[in-house]
Amino acid sequence: MTGKNILLPQSLPSFVEVYPNIINRLQSTGAFRTSAHKSPNHIIVNEYLPGQGIMDGPAYHPVVATISLGSHTVFHYYKYTSGTEGSGGSSDSPARVIDPVPVLSVFLEPRSAIITTGSLYTSHLHGQVLMAGCLSLHPNHSPQLRSIREVEGDTIIAGGNDSHPPKLADLNVEIANWRLLAGAQVKEAVIKGGTLQRGVRYSLTCRDVEKVASRAFLRR
C-alpha cells in the first residue's frame, strides 16, 4: 500500500483462495457486491496478546470482514454523541465526543467472522477496548484516545432469555449474538456466569482496496 492508499497488486496466499477458500466464502455473503472488485483484495494479519486491543475507524470501501483465530475477543461499536469539546489541536473544527457506552457488543469466538458495513462502519468506531472520554476530530479520522482500558478477560453475567439476556459485566451491556455462540465454554458462561480469559488472538482483516496500481505504474 502506498502513502496515497493505492494497493500494489500481489497474489493472495493460497490458504485464503484454495482451502478453506476464505475469499469465496466472504464473497458469497454478498457483503462486497457493491465494492470495486466485488471481493476482498487486501488482508492484514495482526497478533493481539491478552489485554491488547485496537480502535478502528472508516477506511477503504465501507465494508470490512474480520476473522478471529486463536483466542476469543469482544467487538464493541461506539457512536459519536451530539456534543463537541474544544479543538483537537490539528484543526479549527471542534472535537467530537465518543459515547463510552457501546451501541453494540459482539462476542467473537475463535474461527468466527464478523462483517461490519453500513452505518456501523461509516459513522461508528469499533474495537476490542473499553473507552472513556474519547475524542475525534471527524468520523473519518482515527480517534484521539484520552482514556482506554484494555481487557485481559471477559466476565459474563448469566442470562438465557430476552428478558434476562447475558451481559458483559464491565459495561453491563448485552452480548448481542449470545444465541449464536457455539463453544461449550462460552455457552456455560452464558448460562451460569463466569470469566473467560483472553489469550493470543490472530485477526485477519479483509477489505477491498478500490485503487489498485496499474502495470504501467509499477514499471516506472
Automatic annotation (TrEMBL):
Q: Does the keyword Oxidoreductase apply?
A: yes
Specify whether Transcription is a keyword of the entry. Answer: no
InterPro entries given for it? ALKBH6 (IPR032862)
Q: List where the protein spans the membrane.
A: none
**Any idea which UniProt keywords this protein has?**
Dioxygenase, Iron, Metal-binding, Oxidoreductase
Mention one GO molecular function. Answer: metal ion binding
Q: Which GO terms describe its cellular component?
A: nucleus
Q: Which domain of life is it from?
A: Eukaryota
* Coiled-coil residue windows: none
Q: Which PANTHER family match?
A: ALPHA-KETOGLUTARATE-DEPENDENT DIOXYGENASE ALKB HOMOLOG 6
Q: Which family does it belong to?
A: Belongs to the alkB family.
Supply the name of the protein. Uncharacterized protein
Organism from which the protein derives: Collybiopsis confluens
From the broadest rank down, the organism's phylogenetic lineage runs: Eukaryota, Fungi, Dikarya, Basidiomycota, Agaricomycotina
